[in-house]
Design brief:
2 helices, single chain, mainly alpha
Length: 70
């Protein structure tokens, strides 16, 4: 899905957590994911004026960079 959205020129990001696949088990990864969900909903669904979710910053859980396309 990430590559398809990127090819369409849509704003997207891919976050890779080490040793995690579709089902997350590490508590810090789950927390980070939920924080990202909440930030996305606050910006795009609630439109409460919150800044859009950050792109190309380091993840709190892993320190790895996210890849993005705008």
């Amino acid at each position: 899905m990430y590559l398809s959205l990127k090819e369409l020129g849509r704003e997207t990001m891919l976050i890779v957590y080490p040793d995690e696949y579709h089902e997350f088990k590490t508590p810090s990864h789950i927390k980070d994911l939920h924080e990202r969900y909440l930030a996305w909903y606050a910006h795009y669904v609630k439109a409460d004026g919150s800044p859009r979710p950050a792109h190309a910053k380091q993840t709190k859980a892993t320190g790895r960079l996210m890849r993005n396309a705008q």
